[in-house]
Amino acid sequence: MSLLLDHIVIRVQDLEQSIAHFGSLGFTVQRGGTHADGATHNALIGFADGSYFELIAFLRDAPEHRWWDDGAHVGDGFVDFALLPESVAATIDGAGQRGLVYDGPIAGGRLRPDGERLEWQIGKPRSADLPFLCGDVTPRRLRVAEGAVRHHENGARGVANITLVVNDLDASVARYRALLGAIDVQRAPLPGYGVALAVLRLGPTGLTLLSPSRTPDDADGFASDLRRHLAARGEGVFAVALETHAGGTPRRFASELTHGATLELVAGS
Known about the structure:
- By secondary structure, the protein is α+β, with helices and mostly antiparallel strands.
- The protein has 2 domains: about 150 residues, Roll (2,3-Dihydroxybiphenyl 1,2-Dioxygenase, domain 1); about 110 residues, 2,3-Dihydroxybiphenyl 1,2-Dioxygenase, domain 1.
- The chain is built from 5 helices and 15 strands.
- An 8-stranded mixed beta barrel has the order 1-4-3-2-6-7-8-5. It has a 7-stranded mixed β-sheet with strand order 10-11-12-9-13-15-14.
- The chain is globular and about 50 Å long.
- The relative contact order is 0.17.
- This is VOC family protein.
- Pfam families: Glyoxalase_3 (PF13468).
């Protein structure tokens, strides 16, 4: 059963400010509305490949919420990503038969600013290195708008790659095999960097898993950056590369405008 990228979640403290900031970077931002539990509201940045960014902010204290950041201790930035199943229940069942437990299906929903009510189901993993599942009950086109809103002045067309940082590469690869079934995983060290990596694909999107060596022998190197990320934010999304058209201009977006999300634009093939 193939699973494609659905969306990537960026937590922000101030939704209006984040809408303005991402808009200034050349993204077309849509207001999403308020979630059914009343704890959060969001805005979306949709891409031509069907995936999207979700900018999400809290409307009230919600310590029961998986993305709640008590006292803004961790801060803004990437907090999660989701895959799109044809059936959440069937995907959870298939993963369970391969030894991986997901909780759900759990009902979710959102009220759009125009009054349209959306419904979906989610499946929650029990480890932070894995994505959650988000499957629509109402038509997906109501949740993820089509047309001109997927055009961006900066040329972004889709998610080329998601980089995750994980504690134990072997354990994470095993969990992804249990989730996705028969997949091709390429493994390689990064000589001189103290980092091991594995690469797999979610349709057009690459997924790169990075794990720093357990010996902190590079106090100022890349592996040290990964260890600091793990200590501060835990396992999960570390960086995202967006694809633009062939011959497009690569760029790194300013982190103060992406609310701490490490985000770059790369030229497509």
